[in-house]
Amino acid sequence: MFYIHCPYCGELREEEEFHPKGQAHIVRPADPAACSDDEWGDYLFFRDNPRGIHHELWVHAVGCRKFFNITRHTVTYEILETYKMGEQPRFTAEHPEGRPSQDGVDPASLREGVRA
Amino acid sequence: MQRYSGFGLVKHALSHHENWQRQWRNPTPKKAYDVIIIGGGGHGLGTAYYLAKEFGIKNVAVIEKGWLGGGNTARNTTIVRSNYLWDEAAALYEHSMKLWEGLSQDLNYNVMFSQRGVLNLGHTLQDMRDIQRRVNANRLNGIDGEVLDAKGVQELVPIMDCSKNARYPVLGASWQPRAGVARHDAVAWGFARAADAHGVDILQQTEVTGFKIRDGQVYGVHTNRGDIEAKTVGCVTAGNSGVLAGMAGLKLPLESHPLQALVSEPLKPVLDTVVMSNHVHGYISQSDKGDLVIGAGIDGYNGYGQRGSYPTVEHTLQAIVEMFPMFSRVRMNRQWGGIVDTCPDACPILSKTQVKGLYFNCGWGTGGFKATPGSAHVFAASLAKGEMHPIAEPFSIDRFNTGALVDEHGAAGVAH
Ligand SMILES: Cc1cc2nc3c(=O)[nH]c(=O)nc-3n(C[C@H](O)[C@H](O)[C@H](O)COP(=O)(O)OP(=O)(O)OC[C@H]3O[C@@H](n4cnc5c(N)ncnc54)[C@H](O)[C@@H]3O)c2cc1C
Ligand SMILES: [Zn+2]
Questions:
Q1: What is the DSSP annotation of B69-93?
Q2: What residue of B is the nearest CA neighbor of A55?
């Protein structure tokens, strides 16, 4: 059972309030009619499926009903961070310990916040 | 290979069953083979078996990182049926069904294939229309099927709540009498023993860590026990297929999800068929040992953890108790998960790739056990000839870019 920190509600809630919606940060082609079959097929059907750190879109379905993102490890299932739409993740495959931030916040402290 | 028979059983009883032959060897890897199969699940072992038996290619290695059947093959709920909607899928699953019907004889191994029939329940008017459409399509394809009303279902399964008072009343079902269950680990072992007898090397505890590719042609694999060469490599690794594809610089339209199952304490015989419901989302049968075998849905998020979440167990048991109120006090004994490779159209990928000589057989998701012999057979034919078998052809990876999907979300709606 996950406990998930909704970045909009600012609360740690149980997994059953949420729904996973697949890979995060997928950008719809600006001009779909101009896409080749390959580009369109890739956009619709091809997803990252890493054994490791993954960025996912979730919705707080029975809470605020807002969409947000989660960085999660797909083997340990550890949730590394949750962040709002439009924001970028701090924890990535390249920076599993957290990308150094410009605002001076220690990534490890963010991580504590979501784990509770 | 020492053949199994009733007579053999008596003979070995005289020596207290202490002199049975090992079922397969434990060879050290050779430097090179004609064909390498990655993945020692049913589909991979079956592919090796048919390569050796039907296509005369015996210099074959099956490379398995763990133990035989330790993937989804021996984690599933063993439902076998072929009542899929579209011609392409029906051909593939029915090809498999025909092979199931002679498999124990063919392998000289009792896979306990039991054609006890499968019911797919309908709970809404739309369900019933879809069932009628699917059964009609099945019959046109020569696949057995009947549409039953609620009374017909009740006669087959007296313990199910088919009353009008149910929260989701049973309106009817599709019924495939030739469908049923098989013993899943016996399928892996039977194929392994028969393949080994033809000279196939089964290499357990051997993990593929990369591919050897030159000028767009595969010529071997890296493993934790050294490099092994072959110009034809079939990758049959279910939930880990995306990881393997990544090693070859390829991407597959697959997502890996945990799917779990659970079994109860053993009961006296109460259920002699298989009941599946898309709508309340549960499926159940009773094993020969008496335990109820219950399948859940996938966890919605990606995962490689081989365990499922508790909310999913809870939803599943709600569905089971909705259909079978008498099971509400049965205790569950064990629960486990497998990693299934779900594909956007709920159909598998049997395909060549951009790397010459490298083939994938994956994307079976929640429902590939039933296809084990058929998938293995057409995949072996494809590897042997270098051209995809006509039954496999529609399942090429190209379909996600051409748009020629084979949408089986209806027939495959409930994980099975
Ligand atoms: C809980 C559950 C219930 C299911 N119920 C049903 C059902 O009722 N009916 C049905 O038809 N289907 C069902 N399925 C689906 C079915 O089990 C699978 O589709 C099928 O067994 C896949 O077989 P396979 O041989 O392709 O894969 P697997 O049996 O998973 O074999 C793949 C093998 O590849 C190995 N491997 C992975 N990576 C590497 C590597 N790098 N190097 C070497 N080896 C590697 C793995 O260890 C594994 O043994 C169910 C699945 C689950 C999890
Ligand atoms: Zn919220």
A1: TTTTTTTS--EE----SSHHHHHHH
A2: B302
Going by C-beta distance under 8 Å and a sequence separation of 6 or more, which residues neighbour residue B406? B86, B88, B89, B345, B347, B394, B395, B399
Phi-psi domain of A30 (left: phi exceeds 0; alpha: psi -120 through 50; beta: other): alpha
Distance of alpha carbon B84 from alpha carbon B91, whole angstroms: 9
Cα dist. B9→B15, B16, B206, B298 in Å? 10, 10, 34, 42
pTM recorded for the entire structure: 0.96
Backbone angles phi, psi at B137, to 5 degrees: -60, -40
Identify the burial level of B144 via C-beta atoms within 10 angstroms of its C-beta, where 0-12 means exposed, 13-18 middle and 19 or more buried.
middle
With a 6 Å cutoff on the Cβ, whether B122 touches ligand 1 is: no
Is ligand 1 within 6 A of the CB of residue B71? Answer: yes
**pLDDT 10s digits, B316-374:** 999 999 999 999 999 999 999 999 999 999 999 999 999 999 999 999 999 999 999 99
Complex ipTM = 0.92
Please answer yes or no on whether A77 and B401 come within 8 Å at the CB atom.
no
Q: Report DSSP state, residue A9.
A: T
Gyration radius of chain B over CA positions: 21
Please state, in angstroms and rounded to a whole number, the distance separating the CA atoms of residues B251 and B248.
9
Q: Could you report the per-residue pLDDT of B172-181, keeping only the tens digit for each?
A: 999 999 999 9
